[in-house]
Amino acid sequence: MENYVKGVNIDPEISLSELPFNYLPPGVVWMKVRPGSKMTNLIEYALKSMEECRSQVWTGVGPAIGKCISCVEIMKRKIPNLHQITKISYHKCEEYWNPKNNELDPIRIVRNIPVLHVLLSSDSLDSTVPGYQLSQPSQNINFRQVKKITTKRKLRNKRETNTP
Questions:
Q1: DSSP code of residue 18
Q2: Residues in domain DNA/RNA-binding protein Alba-like (predicted)?
């Protein structure tokens, strides 16, 4: 590879219509998890959006799959009785390498990157679909209570960081 220079990467964005679910509830919120995403920001936004819209799709690509799973599990603990459908697929990414010498041919590399999609819904979903899972019932948590808890944690963390 020392005789080549990296060219263009063609990594098309995944659109909502390409998600592997047969049915998506109207107004679904799509949470795209990236490797650099902060989990606290993702969870706070997801909790707020779950108040308005009762379903979310979480997507993690490549190295962000672990973070996506962690976020989904946190959501399932914070909000009881969520229905979940999990789908795994692959996303094609093309890399082009240009030769330094005119004698060599350009190289095209196609990589299949794993993608995880998780549909979470407060409303019931089709339980016959492969990948369906009902979260364990726990005590009922009000969205306002969750908001108070996260606000208290923010204040506590802010006080801890400001103390010398």
A1: G
A2: 30-90
By three-state DSSP, how is residue 14 classified? Answer: coil
What's the total number of domains in the chain? Answer: 1
Amino acid identity for residue 96 in this structure: Y
SS3 at position 95: strand
Range of the domain at 49: 4-11+20-162
Sign for the CA dihedral angle at 92, 32, 26, 74 comes to positive
pLDDT tens sequence across 26-69: 889 999 999 999 999 999 999 999 988 889 999 999 999 999 99
Relative to beta strand 83-99, strand 132-134 is antiparallel
Among residues 149, 131, 151, 133, the alpha carbon closest in space to that of 141 is found at 149
Say what the pLDDT of residue 22 is. Answer: 87
Token pair, residue 41, equals 């920001």
pTM of the full structure: 0.76
Q: How far apart are CA 55 and CA 84, in angstroms?
A: 10
Q: How far apart are CA 81 and CA 83, in angstroms?
A: 6
